[in-house]
Amino acid sequence: MDISYRITQNRADAEEILQDTFIELWKRKPEGAIVAWLKKVVVNKSLNTVRDRKKVRDRKIIELENNPPETPDGILEDKEKVMVVKEALSSLKPLENTVVILKKYHGMSHREIANILEITENNSRIILYRAMDKLKNRLKPYFLRGDIYE
User: Fold this and answer.
1) Are 46 and 63 in a shared domain?
2) Cα(103)–Cα(105) distance, integer angstroms
3) DSSP-assigned letters across all residues of 60-125
4) Number of structural domains, the chain?
């Protein structure tokens, strides 16, 4: 459920996706690497959910771009940092968001990410690089040190 929650940013959606995935597992009874199959289905269902909510997210991004938050005098408190990072992650394209989450939060290799998302390993690296660059630019006003990007 953690992967789905990090992609969808919604607990109810993540729970529903998890339930749907296990129902699909029960119906299909796949052979082979069941864990990899489960991860792939969860990621795909999560991405579909995010795509369905894309219009709402786009409106929020436009709002944020039109009314950017002011630069703080000091370093933000931990809760504020988390909120700002979540907002920055949600501003990424769904595929970029997913690659960042799978790599940075779940420690997956580019090979695993490529397998789940059906892309090449090199494409996974490129997407991660571009997404991290976008995050760096979006988060620059909030953080005094560069260590947030590591």
Assistant:
1) no
2) 6
3) HHHHHHHSPPPPPSSPPPHHHHHHHHHHHHHTS-HHHHHHHIIIIIT---HHHHHHHHT--HHHHH
4) 2
Is there a single domain that holds both residue 23 and residue 60?
no
| Better pLDDT: 43 or 64 | 43
Domain containing 149 equals 55-150
CA distance 25 to 34: 9
In the chain, count H helices and then E strands: 8, 0
CA distance 141 to 138: 7
Dump pLDDT digits (tens) for 54-64.
Answer: 656 556 655 65
pTM, 2 dp: 0.54
What residues have CB less than 8 Å from 56, skipping those under 6 apart?
none
pLDDT interval class at 150 (50, 70, 90): very low
Amino acid in the structure at residue 135: L
The CATH number of residue 125's host domain is 1.10.10.10
Q: Is 108 left (phi over 0), alpha (psi -120 to 50) or beta?
A: beta
Tokens of 136: 């760096």
